[in-house]
Specification:
alpha/beta, 8-stranded mixed beta sheet, 9 helices
Length: 265
């Protein structure tokens, strides 16, 4: 499957996430916000990476956390640094993990949706394994904030697509109830701030590609470009708390954060 091949290439010596210290505030706040849902619950953490979020949820009272990732390196790192008796680490896909029907209370799917060729398939799997009163927490980049035009392909080479809110709502169809819609780093629609954020995403992956091709010289070029303001390489969302918040009608977040419940169909 192309999804597996592409995302396995994203792994490094520490797994799919940057390192075992898990320094991304955006990722941290997604999991921290989820803690209110997990006490005494069976949780599935899909695309768990190196296990920081799974560990946090287990330490915060989750009854059992099934933590799944395609990357062997990520799971190896998780088992080394984020050990808890209430976590079951699984290397592979959700479809092959043998999670029983209607057995999970909470699913956390953070920055997974955009990597999939057909996200509806995983939504169907989530619907299958969630209890009727279960909750799916779904975070994914907002295509409105990352792409200059809706039809553009993502700048991130590991993303198949980055979706506008209306596109995700359409995929949810009549199988899911939207309990809440939140987001991280809200910006006013059609604003200079939105344009600058799109430029940041573009510039970041220009330099990432350059570094990959020419190594240390690419880093030097990136430093020079950043120093003279030619490229914008600092994540704007890090200036605030990064917590998922309510999104007003006139705003667009950098990242969607849906809180969903499966409907009986």
């Amino acid at each position: 499957m192309r999804t597996e091949e592409l995302n396995l290439k994203a792994s490094n010596s520490s797994g799919a996430r940057p390192d075992y210290l898990y320094g991304s505030m955006l990722d941290q706040m997604r999991y921290i916000y989820a803690l209110q849902y997990v006490k005494d619950k069976n949780v599935l953490d899909i695309a768990c990476g190196i296990g920081w979020g799974s560990y946090l949820m287990a330490m915060s009272g989750a009854q059992k956390v099934f933590a799944i990732d395609l990357s062997q390196e990520a799971i190896h790192t998780a088992k080394k640094y984020y050990i808890n008796p209430n976590i079951v680490y699984i290397c592979g896909s959700l479809e092959d993990s043998n999670i029983p029907d209607k057995s999970i209370d909470v699913v956390t799917s953070f920055e997974t949706f955009e990597h999939l060729e057909n996200p509806i398939l995983i939504l169907n799997e989530f619907h299958r394994i969630l209890k009727p009163n279960g909750v799916l927490l779904l975070s994914t980049p907002n295509g409105y904030a990352t792409k200059f035009k809706q039809k553009d392909l993502p700048h991130n080479p590991y993303h198949f697509q980055e979706y506008f809110k209306k596109e995700i709502v359409q995929m949810l169809g009549d199988k899911w109830e939207i309990l809440e819609y939140k987001g991280q780093y809200p910006m006013r629609a059609e604003s200079t701030e939105i344009f600058k954020y799109r430029r940041f995403i573009r510039d970041y992956f220009i330099i990432t590609k350059l570094v990959h091709k020419i190594g240390i010289l690419g880093r030097v070029v990136g430093f020079v470009f950043r120093r003279f303001g030619i490229l914008t390489l600092a994540e704007p969302a890090f200036v605030g708390s990064c917590e998922p918040v309510d999104i007003q009608n006139s705003n667009e977040p950098a990242y969607h954060y849906f809180i969903l419940r499966p409907k009986i169909v």
